[in-house]
């Protein structure tokens, strides 16, 4: 989204269509999941197909916002903003699935948001933004990404109650995602234009295929994690991986992180470790109040 193809220096072309990148990701993910379902036996499918469309539309919109934000905000800022998704995911879980959370879950989520705010308000993330960056637009797009993504994971968590496999979920969601994106691309006349850009710049085509392959492989793990552990746990896991992405971006693109920004990152991960500790203590408390194994077995037999 930010580099030039076809010429050295400033004479090349830049690819600007975020929607086409979303379509590339989804069509490859659909192919991988469809092939997997054809080769390996899957559980009997029980979810109405139309319910996948809700997750697909929100997923397409969140992906579009994610790519579009790269035009208006630096990558480390975007990555740290994703760490604030814990509270929106929890709130969306209350709306979609009527879930309830403990006080320490809200406390650690608030600490995560505080750490992210410290980073965003520091000068380190803004130092490498292009002068033409529209910060307010970037914030709005990131807010849209967080809202759509929070709904997507919670709705997928709700769909897993139909006892489907993660690959079946992946196929259903990406089927509707492909229909939504290709319809929009054809209506705008952008599909042929994007294909022509790929024809002119084989390097871009290779980059787009690599990006899509990584996305498809990542989805296999994403749907399995949501199905086994739920949307909130998945969001925390994704937040942890942001540390690697931040470090990688700083090394590759020379982004600087100020002392305040570094402290904010520390607060984020301190909150995550506190969350893990509190959850472990809660599990020990529940085990301590449970009846002995032999007594429980006897009650079960009765």
Give me the secondary-structure topology.
Layout: H1 18-39, H2 50-69, H3 75-82, H4 86-96, H5 103-121, H6 135-159, H7 166-188, H8 190-200, H9 202-229, H10 231-253, H11 259-288, H12 293-301
Helix pairs in contact: 1-2, 1-7, 1-9, 2-6, 2-7, 3-10, 4-6, 4-10, 5-11, 6-10, 7-9, 8-9, 9-10
Considering the chains and any ligands shown, give keywords for the structure.
302 residues; mainly alpha; 12 helices; 76% helix; 0% strand; disordered C terminus
Largest sheet: none
What is Rg?
A: 22 Å
The proportion of residues forming helix, as a percent range, comes to over 70%
Indicate the mean pLDDT: 78
What is the total number of structural domains?
A: 1
Quaternary structure type: single chain
Q: Output the helix-strand order.
A: HHHHHHHHHHHH
Please state roughly what percent of the residues sit in beta strands, choosing from under 5%, 5-15%, 15-25%, 25-35%, 35-45% or over 45%. Answer: under 5%
Distance between the terminal alpha carbons, to the nearest Å?
Answer: 65 Å
Question: Which blocks of ≥5 consecutive residues have pLDDT under 50?
Answer: 123-132, 292-302
Shape: globular
